[in-house]
Amino acid sequence: MTKSYVIKPELGKEYPVISHGKGIYLYDKEGNRYIDGSSGAVTASIGHGVEEVAEAMYAQAKEVSFVYRSHFSSDAVEKLATKLAEWAPGSLNWTFFVSSGSEATETAQKIAIQYWQEKGRPTKNRIISRWMSYHGITMGALSMSGHVLRRKRFTPLLADYPAITGPYPYRKPEDMSLESYALACANELETAILRVGPEQVAAFIAEPVIGASGGAVVPPDGYFQRIREICDKYEVLFIADEVMTGVGRTGKAFGVNHWGVVPDLMTLGKGMSAGYTPMAATIVSDEIIETITKGSGSIMAGHTYSANPQSAAVSLAVLDYVEKHQLVEKAAEQGAYLLARLKELADELPLIGDARGLGMLCALEFVKNKQTKEPFALSQGVGGKVIQKAFEKGLLIYPAMGGIEGVAGDAVIISPPLTITTEQIDELIALLKEAVIAVQQELQDKALIG
Ligand code: PMP
């Protein structure tokens, strides 16, 4: 191999070079095949190599790829925003386009703060987030993320944003019903708002289902309904970070739809363009846009590639594909099958403490002791070992092990393209099982588990 000058995640390591992808499979130049079982950070939701998307990309590139948003709009951007307004719940009708999930959450942060400024309440400028959350890698987004591993190096972060505990049903106190646990967790928001002072809090941000920092952690019913009530009571905006859960991943168009809750701002990324181009968005309510229109009249955000027609055309083709092939409904059906198969694995293998998920966003959590749920220390990186073994066997899964140190164990996310068939899920499960058994054996040999 010729010398590489690309800065890769692990310096000094050689990475296979991918030649092409089709459906749920990726192929490297050596001829190895991989099942894309995590859609690379839960992104490739319609599978690889979809002709319609390639055609839309070419058609737009022939017309015009880039126009600067300060001067022009484009058909592609207008149509995409209209479609998103149709998809999004309530009065979430206005989209600000960006290129990554981190930009989308930072934009939401800025719009929330600006909204209160325009209302003459400039002290409302702090965002409450949750421990065990991930909202992006840029400094602003990290400052409102509870991903311990990713925050560590950069502490102190930009802002001393408060964080509360998110619901983690697998580790709820045993003597508490799920219903009271949901309320207790949500009520932590009220306590935090009162501690900080409602006049200092602009917004609360949460992932409907926790992704990268916990692994498909689904909140109990009642949690987000109570969160909405608290936000309304103290005039705090609710930002739903749907970067991972949005566009059908959980079996509904958006994660919050499972609980009938309408946020004030919503962020999208990943599945919005399914990996075909960088594309992300911040969608906001009529009320926010009306307030800013009456006030300064302009949102203080934006990047060079915001609202470029090329990415919009691709995203539009992806959303059309999702609609045409009823992938939201498929995610619910096939996701239920995937979860059932994962639960079988959890019943069988002592290393797996929990199998959980919603729609096609699923995860396994590994524990030292299944009875006591004792987690592995994060430094043991058991999830990482399973990911490596699965990789060697031709299966890609995604790490979720940045949660609260000493509480969260190692988890891996399994969330293949929404197009996956039942037979392909069986194929995925067979490889996953081999990988877990191999790591379990290794840990048993070293007497690290019972
Ligand atoms: N929010 C959530 C919920 C995410 O899962 C991610 C990415 N894992 C981000 C934000 C950041 O997105 P990006 O990596 O595209 O910046």
UniProtKB/TrEMBL annotation:
<dbReference type="GO" id="GO:0008483">
    <property type="term" value="F:transaminase activity"/>
</dbReference>
<dbReference type="InterPro" id="IPR005814">
    <property type="entry name" value="Aminotrans_3"/>
</dbReference>
<dbReference type="GO" id="GO:0030170">
    <property type="term" value="F:pyridoxal phosphate binding"/>
</dbReference>
<keyword id="KW-0032">Aminotransferase</keyword>
<protein>
    <submittedName>
        <fullName>Probable aminotransferase</fullName>
        <ecNumber>2.6.1.-</ecNumber>
    </submittedName>
</protein>
<dbReference type="InterPro" id="IPR015421">
    <property type="entry name" value="PyrdxlP-dep_Trfase_major"/>
</dbReference>
<dbReference type="InterPro" id="IPR015424">
    <property type="entry name" value="PyrdxlP-dep_Trfase"/>
</dbReference>
<dbReference type="InterPro" id="IPR049704">
    <property type="entry name" value="Aminotrans_3_PPA_site"/>
</dbReference>
<comment type="similarity">
    <text>Belongs to the class-III pyridoxal-phosphate-dependent aminotransferase family.</text>
</comment>
<keyword id="KW-0663">Pyridoxal phosphate</keyword>
<keyword id="KW-0808">Transferase</keyword>
<dbReference type="InterPro" id="IPR015422">
    <property type="entry name" value="PyrdxlP-dep_Trfase_small"/>
</dbReference>
<dbReference type="Pfam" id="PF00202">
    <property type="entry name" value="Aminotran_3"/>
</dbReference>
